[in-house]
């Protein structure tokens, strides 16, 4: 048996390549949409991908199940559980609780594990060459290392109401009647790791075991004493903000993501063509430089995506492909790097990367407005209509913020403009913790027509300045 974990650090998402080495056939579970790595793995091991499946209708990334099946001719399997409202909108073979897939010597058994979503499946894997019972469990967004899949995303991302309570009850039942009935030795391979918004306390370990979670997970004592209400209360408390793009992912994954096929490589973009396209709205530039460099000058209306490592996350916050028809041109040193950005972008359904430039020379330039912590109070006094906006998460804001600041996370600002003042009503003064998320959010808001001033150093910088002022005042008192 071969089991390979393919982990995307950008979205903290894991997919799995499972192969029978006796018959050289493989199954891929929860593939992302840039599929070449799965094809490369198959070629490396001399295997044929014959089946593709997923654990549930994902909210945080666009599934590559249809894409990989179309490229390889593999059979497609999805959940048939959860009821009509959670039926997939594309052709695939349906799996229900207890159904099995045979892959050479391997048997993959679907288990219905609702809670995170109503249709959620997990997969028990039995390696028939060595054992006659399961030894591995692919749990998707059901059980993570040290945590559970949040049951409130349907409320947060899909516009539903109060599904979190039923979902939490389902998670409790799924653990009690399913997960905890398995032997301690069963290895657990979850669909996400630390950094994912699909839970509140995910561990960074790539795998765990049933026995370890039974003994050490935060939820284990509640199950041991059959305390459903205590479990629900702790599970729902303090869940992080759900990014606004999750709603689009849910819709597209349910219907079936558009097939990409062979994607053309991003082409080098001439300055004159790009300038005309920027002027008429055909193109939008993606500035990939660090925040400090962006603040020295960037292209008017450019998006700020300061890191390839989080390019999927940040482009999904900053660009809405359903309302913005612009073709993206990325600042990249060469075509290969530009293609890497394209791979990240399609993971969240941003398919419009067309070209790249390796320099901003010859392009129009503007310097994003900033204000220092020392001058913040004066700016607010001069402009009483300015809104001080904290674009960090809810829990960060609750744990400490600047007096008078309102909160709307960077993953929501572009999509919740109804919660902001009208564009003509005044400027926004924005900050995050260190400045990176703020740069992404501020650039997207400027592109949407807002007058935005970024707080230099963001909350961390303001906190240091405030502490310094306190120390100076204390020193002055001591001197007197």
UniProtKB/TrEMBL annotation:
Read off the PANTHER family from this record.
Answer: PERSULFIDE DIOXYGENASE ETHE1, PERSULFIDE DIOXYGENASE ETHE1, MITOCHONDRIAL
| Protein name, as recorded | MBL fold metallo-hydrolase
Which CDD domains does the record cross-reference, listed alphabetically? POD-like_MBL-fold, RHOD
> Which keywords fit this entry according to its UniProt record?
Hydrolase, Metal-binding
Q: Hydrolase: present as a keyword of the record?
A: yes
Q: Which residues form the Rhodanese domain?
A: 279-306, 382-464
> Does the keyword Transmembrane helix belong to this entry?
no
Tell me the organism's taxonomic lineage. Answer: Bacteria, Bacillati, Actinomycetota, Actinomycetes, Micrococcales
Q: Which species is this UniProt entry from? A: Brachybacterium avium
* InterPro entries named in the record: Metallo-B-lactamas, Mito_Persulfide_Diox, POD-like_MBL-fold, Rhodanese-like_dom, Rhodanese-like_dom_sf, RibonucZ/Hydroxyglut_hydro
List GO molecular-function terms, semicolon-separated. Answer: hydrolase activity; metal ion binding; sulfur dioxygenase activity
For the biological process aspect of GO, one term held by this record is:
glutathione metabolic process
């Amino acid at each position: 048996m071969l089991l390979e974990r393919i982990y995307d650090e950008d979205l903290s998402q894991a997919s799995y390549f499972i192969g029978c080495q006796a018959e050289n056939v493989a199954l891929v579970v929860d593939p992302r949409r840039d599929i070449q790595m799965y094809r490369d793995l198959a070629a490396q091991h001399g295997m044929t991908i014959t089946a593709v499946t997923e654990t549930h209708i994902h909210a945080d990334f666009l599934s590559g199940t249809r894409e990989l099946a179309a490229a390889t001719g593999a059979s497609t399997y999805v959940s048939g559980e959860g009821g009509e409202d959670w039926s997939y909108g594309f052709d695939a073979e349906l799996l229900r609780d207890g159904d099995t897939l045979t892959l050479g010597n391997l048997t993959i058994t679907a288990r219905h594990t609702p809670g995170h979503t109503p249709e959620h499946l997990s997969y028990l894997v039995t390696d028939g060459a060595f054992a006659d019972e399961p030894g591995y469990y692919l749990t998707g967004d059901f059980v993570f290392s040290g945590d559970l899949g949040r049951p409130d995303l349907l409320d947060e991302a899909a516009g539903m109401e109060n599904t979190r309570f039923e979902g939490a009850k389902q998670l409790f039942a799924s653990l009690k009647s399913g997960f905890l009935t398995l032997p301690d030795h069963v290895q657990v391979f979850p669909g996400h790791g630390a950094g994912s918004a699909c839970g509140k306390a995910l561990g960074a370990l790539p795998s765990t075991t049933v026995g370890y979670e039974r003994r050490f997970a935060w939820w284990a004592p509640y199950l041991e004493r059959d305390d459903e209400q205590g479990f629900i209360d702790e599970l729902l408390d303090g869940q992080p903000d759900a990014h606004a793009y999750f709603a689009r992912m849910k819709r597209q994954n349910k219907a079936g993501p558009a097939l990409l096929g062979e994607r053309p490589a991003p082409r080098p973009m001439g300055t004159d063509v790009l300038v005309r396209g920027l002027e008429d709205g055909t193109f939008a530039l993606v500035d990939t430089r660090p925040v400090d460099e962006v603040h020295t000058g960037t292209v008017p209306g450019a998006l700020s995506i300061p890191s390839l490592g989080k390019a999927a996350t940040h482009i999904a916050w900053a660009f809405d492909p359903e309302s913005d028809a612009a073709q993206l041109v990325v600042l990249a040193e060469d075509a290969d790097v530009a293609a890497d950005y394209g791979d990240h972008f399609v993971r969240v359904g941003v398919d419009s990367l067309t070209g790249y430039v390796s320099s901003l020379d010859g392009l129009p330039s503007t310097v994003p407005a900033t204000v220092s912590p020392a001058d913040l109070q004066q700016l607010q006094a001069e402009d009483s209509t300015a809104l001080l906006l904290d674009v960090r998460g809810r829990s960060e804001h609750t744990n400490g913020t600047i007096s008078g600041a309102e909160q709307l996370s960077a993953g929501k600002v572009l999509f919740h403009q109804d919660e902001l003042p009208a564009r003509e009503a005044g400027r926004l003064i924005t900050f995050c913790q260190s400045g990176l998320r703020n740069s992404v959010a501020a650039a997207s808001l400027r592109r949407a027509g807002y007058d935005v001033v970024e707080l230099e150093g963001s909350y961390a910088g303001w906190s240091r300045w405030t502490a310094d002022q306190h120390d100076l005042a204390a020193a002055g008192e001591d001197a007197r």
